[in-house]
Amino acid sequence: MEFPHPSRPGYYGLEFSNELSSAIALAADVLIPGNEHYPSASSARVVNFIEERSSDQDRENLKRVIELLGPDLSSEEAMHALEMEHAELFIWFRDFIYHAYYASNLVLDALSKRGYAYHGAPQPLGYRTEVNQAQPRTTRGFHFSSAEVTKNHG
Asked: Where in the chain are the domains?
């Protein structure tokens, strides 16, 4: 099972049942319980993010995670058992939860308040680069501006 590109392209328009949404929130809070500085996964509304971006297969995988966790979804022991016995499914679930968490504006605000200059997807600010970083070290070829081509060769 492969976690697709982190942008999670596409909005599939699925709706989760209230039971599935609640179960995912409880399980997500085991992975990210929150503290005085950061919200829990459920407070960061990870279920909304996941619901918007889940395909039919994702929804089936989520149902399987909930089924395997059993009746006590908020149990660290159940989550550990999932990790040990169904590692691939656990990793997929964990990555989906973490991606949703760090896309939350509440989490981005909490990071900012703690002094981090993180900005989330889709990276509207780009990445900091050196001015000449993309320039080749060795000059090759030549360049004419459009105006020069028309003036000299037109």
From this structure: 18-113
